[in-house]
Amino acid sequence: MNTTPEGLIRIKESLNSDIEDVVEYCKNKIRDKNCKISREGKNWICITDDIKIIVNACGYTIIAAKKLQKQ
């Protein structure tokens, strides 16, 4: 699992975070037992702890991660 240099910047900005290793952070969130994973077209959608992580299903590239609005 990886991301692009642009993806790193986009994810850090979206999460408003200074996370050093974004890929490892996302992998840990995806591994969480409460993570809900579904397939939408060519992407896996992973939702846990009010964070949505989008992963390309073919290359396992982390495309985006963002905080969800609490309802």
Automatic annotation (TrEMBL):
Superkingdom of origin: Bacteria
Pfam families: DUF3781
InterPro entries with a match to the protein in the record: DUF3781
Stated name of the protein: DUF3781 domain-containing protein
Species of the source: Solobacterium moorei F0204
